[in-house]
Amino acid sequence: MTQANLRDYRLGWVGTGRMGYAMASRLLQNGCDVAVYNRTRAKAEPLTESGAVIVESPAALADRDIVFTMVSGPDDLIEVVAGSKGVLKHYSIRRKVILALLLRLARACADFRGAVP
Fold first, then answer.
1. 5: DSSP letter
2. Which helix (H) or strand (E) element contains residue 37?
3. How far is 69 from 81, CA to CA, in rounded Å?
């Protein structure tokens, strides 16, 4: 298996909280093409100094080769991926398959959170 170079891809990033901001920043510092969405735009804007492009909704990241999400919980994940302005807004068949998988993942995450003291 060959190792992929992320600089060869157009990346999308959703969520620039404490962890997401640091990770997106690292990608930018290493020369990656990154477009970013965050609910609170002001939290993402400093990334433009490193070359990020800020977009208005996750749907605007649909043309990206890879989209990373770093959001706080399963409901947020479902919204940014499959919601009315989600990354998969324009993909009907693929959206259904991914949505089914996403719902299973969200339930598993919620179950895991409930099991952790």
1. -
2. strand 33-37
3. 9
Give the Å distances, CA to CA, from 14 to 1, 42, 96, 110, 116: 28, 14, 21, 20, 26
Q: What is each CA distance from 92 to 16, 34, 82, 98, 99, in whole angstroms?
A: 28, 25, 10, 10, 10
Residue 36 pLDDT exceeds 80: yes
Residue-wise pLDDT tens digits, 44-102? 999 999 999 999 999 999 888 888 889 888 788 888 888 889 988 776 545 555 666 66
Exposure of 117 by Cβ count < 10 A (0-12 exposed, 13-18 middle, 19+ buried)?
A: exposed
Structure tokens at 33: 């093409």
User: Tokens for 110?
Assistant: 């919620």
Q: How far apart are CA 116 and CA 86, in angstroms?
A: 29
